[in-house]
């Protein structure tokens, strides 16, 4: 089987990094086409040996991109197309149908209550999404929370498959030597109390609340990894609060490890240097950074995190849900400071979100997609993979696992319930492995 992943962009972001990690664990050859912005993640994919093509789409209304995309898919003779992020889902599903692709899958990575990937959920946005969704074979939700939102929109439960994001936990295992070295490289006092956060610096992440909270705790430091339009405002806020020497805005950091020269710590090393992790966002579709922090043995304070909130409390005993206010966060952090730095064992939730499990569950969805092809496409045997001209320049069951249907029944299939083989994909592997970790 030959698969194509279509994504809106390949700058640094949760969906983009998750795609890169996932492709390391898929058994079939996969190409990636990005509509826009072949950024840092594109470089990482190419380093992994994945073919990455840039369509050069000029904007949401660049309708000329549709025939170019359909022609690329047809000439590439892909058996399956998997789309990621809103714009790619709208254009990619339609192009795949025009190209006669047998199976079309889309993953919904970032659907909130009031916005999708930062854009307001207007009636038009929702209508366009639903029109495109009907053209596919299956829709993947990264959490039960997202699945419930899709059902609320009117997507049939039978078309929704919950496949959570995955991590490679071994990357995030705590190491005392790494902790000391990372603190030294980032200019942190060896015994300082260090609060951490990871994510795009955009208003929805509410990192201003985190800056205010840490500024209110004399002696505490904040390591904030990520970049975005709010960076200058956060730097200004830290100065206004007299805490610029304790608020460290680190910019984008690699979730897979340190820089090649070893001089710039990546996310795993930064998590080693922290004492507590905070996710202040009020809207999340999954909460991958929280799971990575738990894999590093950190206590976690979060406002919302479906990856944790959708499970029984004993799956993540180190995580504590708090309200959105600054005062409550300050009080919670003060309690952590008084308790002193401590590392926790990786909780059961880390094993549940092992990337090898995620890859196996996704293969089950692919099998379903082949058995129920997208509308208007004949159920002929999959075409033989082969090169074509390029018209575009450039492990065991988890004790916390729920039943085979989503919350409240409703008949929604849960990936992993079926064991059918994907045509041409070869045998599937779910062996135990040390499990880390736009629009």
From TrEMBL:
InterPro entries: Glyco_trans_1, Glyco_trans_4-like_N. It comes from the Bacteria. Residues 180-310 form the Glycosyl transferase family domain. One of its GO terms (molecular function) is glycosyltransferase activity. Residues 391-405, 414-426 have a biased composition (Low complexity). Residues 12-171 form the Glycosyltransferase subfamily 4-like N-terminal domain. Residues 374-439 are annotated as: Disordered. Keywords: Glycosyltransferase, Transferase. PANTHER family: GLYCOSYL TRANSFERASE GROUP 1, GLYCOSYLTRANSFERASE. This is D-inositol 3-phosphate glycosyltransferase. It comes from Streptomyces lavendulae subsp. lavendulae. The lineage of its organism: Bacteria, Bacillati, Actinomycetota, Actinomycetes, Kitasatosporales. The gene is epsF.
